[in-house]
Structures are given as structure tokens and as C-alpha cells.
Amino acid sequence: MDSRNPRGPLRAGEDIILVDPKGEEHLLTLTPGKPIGTHRGNILHDDIIGKPDGSRVWTARGAEYRVFRPTFNQYIMNLKRHAQIIYPKDIGPILLWADVFPGATVIEAGIGWGALTIKLLEAVGPTGHITSYEIREDFAESGKKTVSRFLGECSNLEVKLRDIYQGIEEKDVDRIVLDLPEPWRVVAHAGGALVPGGIILSYLPSTVQVKQMVDSVNEHGSFSEPEVFEVIHRPWHVKGLSVRPVQWMFSHSAFIITCRKIT
Fold first, then answer.
1. Region of 125 on the Ramachandran plot (φ > 0 left; ψ -120 to 50 alpha; else beta)
2. Using one digit for the tens of pLDDT, what is the confidence trace for 212-225?
């Protein structure tokens, strides 16, 4: 399923991260015969193809750049995108609190830019299955392209151009992950689709939405008491004797809400 090769030389057609002398990252696809223009001089793609991951390359004017296969974080954060994404700082906790396991059957809505979909696919593995509901055709297509560019073709991913507010067709689902503005409209459908003990997780930016989702879950009566939290990512600067928080941080992005189906 995963088209990436974590070992071996960099190949034509492969995505790479080019890091400039200031530490800024640029996502590129290696194309034979193509130059990379920088204000410090050009670098030829042919000078990168065949080198090991983590190599150094130089422009014609002697500026040093570094080349890496992109990590998931680098891939997602450097993509040009027209849809909001679930940030990597939240994706790890989503996988853990939703307890997405190898072989799981997962419903996702909506696919958006496909960042979470990639990690859901990796978590369920080749024996699991992901069904993504999406009402916008452009998001459905861009999400599939993001996934296939990073993982290759995934036969265990199905993207449905369908409104999940109108119902869930699947039964005996292990997990339901919702990145929607009104997830409370899915609660009753989720109750009929999930296996006993199955988990529903919702990703919401505002406290008003959180309150409505929690009230809806509690009123439905088929779920455990919801757990609500957010994730704060605070980077630190460590250089010589200077050890301090950086001047910016990834603070609030969204709340994560989880609960389990009870019988």
C-alpha cells in the first residue's frame, strides 16, 4: 500500500523536501532534466536523483541545501491546499483516542485534504478498511490525490460522494471519525452503524459546537459519557545556554470528543 521507500537512493518521480540555508522547507517532485531555481543559484534535479536520503547539495553559487524524503508532517504542512486540514499535532491523539487498530473498519467524514485519511489507512493496515463520506466532489478528488501521492493506490479506501447527515450505509463499523460542522446530526446514524463498544470521535473548533455535540450524545442514550480535550504543542528553542520556549506555539486548533457505544 505504501509507495514510499524509506531506504535506497532518491528516485525520479519521488517527492522530496529541499531545506534551504535558513531552514525553510520546499516540497518538490524529482523530475529529470529540470532545474530548481533559487536566489542563491540553481540546483539540477539530476544532481539529487540517485543520492541517499539526507544528502547535501550545492547551488551553482555554492549555497548548501539539504535533501530529505518528506516525513508525514513535512508532506502535509508543505502541500499547497485549498481545504483546511487536521493538523499533525491532533492526528496522533485522534488515532489513540479513537483506538484505530489493524484490521478495523472505519467511517470517516469528510475527507477534506486527506491528511487524516493517510494515517487512518496506515493504522488499519491492509486488512482494514476506510470509507470516507464527502459531499464536495472537489474535496473528494483532492483528498484521494493527496493519499495516493503519499501512499500509492489504496484498494482498502472507498470515497463516497454522499452526505453522511442522510445516513450511514455500513453496519458493524468499529470506529467513526467526524470532521464536520454539525456532527450531532450523525449521532443517531452512528448508533445504528457501530458495533457494541465502538467509538465515535468528533473534531470541532468551537465550544458552542462541543456543547451541542455532548448534549446530543447524552440525550441519545446509546453512548458513554463523552470525553473532551484539546492538544497544545509548545516548541522550545535550545541553542547553547539559551533554553526557552519559542515566541510562537500551536495552541488551539480544535476540540476532540470521544465516546463509546453501549448496549
1. left
2. 999 999 999 999 99
